[in-house]
Here is the input.
Amino acid sequence: MKIEKLSKGKFIKTSIIVLVVVSIFGVIFINKSKAKYRVTQSIQVVSGEVNYKVPDLNVLALYKQKNKGDTSDGNYESITDVPSGNYVVNTDKSYCTIVGDDAQLKDIPMKYEDNKVYIGIKRKGTKCYVYLDIDPGTSGMDLLAKYTLNGISDGCLAYEDAPITGIQSSKSLFCKGKDDFGDTYYFRGAVTNNWVKIGNFYWRIIRFNGNGSIRLIYSGDGNAETIGASTQTKTLTYNSQWNSTQYLKYVYGSTDSTIKADLDSWYDDNLKSSYGSLMDGEAGFCNDADSGSTSNDYQYFKPYDRIYGYTKTATLKCGTPTTNLFTTSGGTKGNQKLANPIGLITVDEVSFAGGFGGLNNNGYYLYTGQAYWTMSPCSFHSSYGANVFVVDNNGYLNINHYVGFPVGVRPVINLKANTTFKEGGDGTKEHPYEVSVQ
Here is the structure.
């Protein structure tokens, strides 16, 4: 790589705001991964001189990558301002020198964060060349590989159509199952490392679907919320009518349920324009309205028989997917009736996550202290109307929730498998996986 000689004239009338970190203990600073960059003062480069009390940094040259992934010298352009966006320092190409010595110093820590460049200076008279790459990020498949690196957690349920024998409130488990597309991987119990941020919205990963997409449930706007009304977008009825089995459905005939109309509106207002291209419409949302058992003038539906029946065997497959799996057009499965790829969680997914029948559970990650809708029909009685499963405020699965009584709405979406996440996230509430949009 040709080293360009930096002249003072090149920096005339040029202002670059750079936060410089003065490292007193240089070796310790480099070797300790948890070392913090100490911001002392912003500097202004004018006419090649540093207007700074301790003139450690003489000259800074910045170069920005033009095309993502290409690290050849010709793919960088010289810039005079620290850019905004998703960038990382290319540590292989970046280096510093000391005035009077052309030897390249590769051991000076550099970092790009919050549209600022941080440099760990150890000696006066340092001159740095910083190359900024477009953040390559981490794909959804990379995230799955990260979670499965150490294998599936001990204590998970059986591989397929698992008998649910109780709640899970203490362990944090990552498990394997089956859905309509193949192998699916889901979170169960007191999970703390399944947070995702999309724009200003926070979500929890429910599972990695069999087609590779990532299934998320809403959990806050502006803040990562675990408890309270802020974990939902609003409270709402599932349907405004109740006296027919059709009102248990997400869509009946050509009519949208009340809750579907609201979810579509929320999607249009908050996700469609900026993030619509990231959404997977094929994984779908299961509104399993197949008829099940009958008792005492009640018509029960298949989700009730699975969750409250004799076997208590939940599944991540959708009964009769050609009618009950709501997908967008163009896919290979489902009814392809959705204009927007948004829905709700199922009672089976809640069971796999750690819920169980009528038992309270305030320890699993889906507990919010609020009642909120699932997408799973429960029962119908001619006198008492239609009921849809609700995750109640104590974390149990409420079977007697009338569709006309409002509770919380927690949207569910599926991100495409190739969605890119910014570097640096670890899935915790404090450092969620953040969707990268260039």
